[in-house]
Design brief:
The protein is of the alpha/beta class. The chain folds into two domains: 93 residues, Translation factors (Elongation Factor Tu (Ef-tu), domain 3, Beta Barrel), CATH 2.40.30; 122 residues, Rossmann fold (3-Layer(aba) Sandwich). The protein is 20% helix and 36% strand.
């Protein structure tokens, strides 16, 4: 099927928010946390890349992505050059990076554009009667705290949602948490071990946090993860 670009806006330097629609369906169905694969023929070779959906499911045929520009990448430069009305081939959403059923308290740990599936999950599932959520979001610079205002508003509206942003390269004006997400696992999790942990970001972070969680006593079945490299 084909996805048509509706709009794209800059979230941070070399990071954009994309809105697509799928004209051939009335409703584009997916489970929060899933990804969509995009296909493009480049230099006579078919390139496929998977991107986590950043929006909640709706009654429309639209979906959203949060992507960073990889200069040496094969597909992201093409996506960043797309104009409204341009189309790209996609495959139906897939993936098991989704909340458990029945749901229980979840700790979401993201770096960079790994925030995308967690935005989808929170926009779809966080409400007055949902399970508690904690989001630990690590980036280098304050300018890259994508969707910050949305998450801060969620935290104001829902006492059972905690938003813990952290910067690895803060400026003197930053008064929040600093360092990598690994430094804030204790604050996020506490002494509880009956929660699910979701990790999304670069391989180095995911692997390191998984090792720390196992040392803390978490079973591997409680740790769900997706790597972005």
């Amino acid at each position: 099927m084909q996805a048509k670009l509706i709009e794209s806006t800059e979230l941070a330097p070399e990071v954009r928010h994309f809105v697509f629609e799928v004209p051939e369906v009335e409703k584009f169905s997916f489970v929060p946390g899933q990804f969509v694969s995009m296909n493009q023929v480049i230099n006579e070779k078919k390139i496929t890349r998977a991107y986590s959906i950043a929006s909640a499911p709706s009654e429309t045929n639209r979906f959203e992505l949060c992507l960073n520009l990889v200069h040496e990448g094969l597909l992201s430069p093409q996506l960043f050059e797309m104009k409204p009305g341009d189309t790209i081939e996609i495959r139906p959403p897939l993936g098991m990076f989704v909340l458990r059923n029945p749901p229980r308290e979840a700790i979401l740990i993201a770096t960079g554009t790994g925030i995308a599936p967690f935005r989808s999950i929170l926009k779809a599932r966080l409400n007055e009667t949902s399970q508690p959520f904690t989001l630990v979001f690590g980036v280098r610079h304050e300018s890259h705290l994508m969707y910050r205002e949305e998450f801060e508003e969620m935290a104001r509206k829902h006492p059972h949602f905690r938003f813990l942003p952290t910067l690895s390269r803060p400026t003197d004006s930053w008064n929040g948490r600093s360092g990598h997400v690994q430094a804030h696992l204790k604050e996020a999790i506490g002494d509880r071990r009956d929660v699910d942990i979701f990790l999304c970001g670069l391989k180095l972070m995911v692997d390191d946090v998984r090792n720390i969680l196992k040392e803390m006593g978490f079973d591997r079945k409680q740790i769900l993860f997706e790597k972005y490299d």
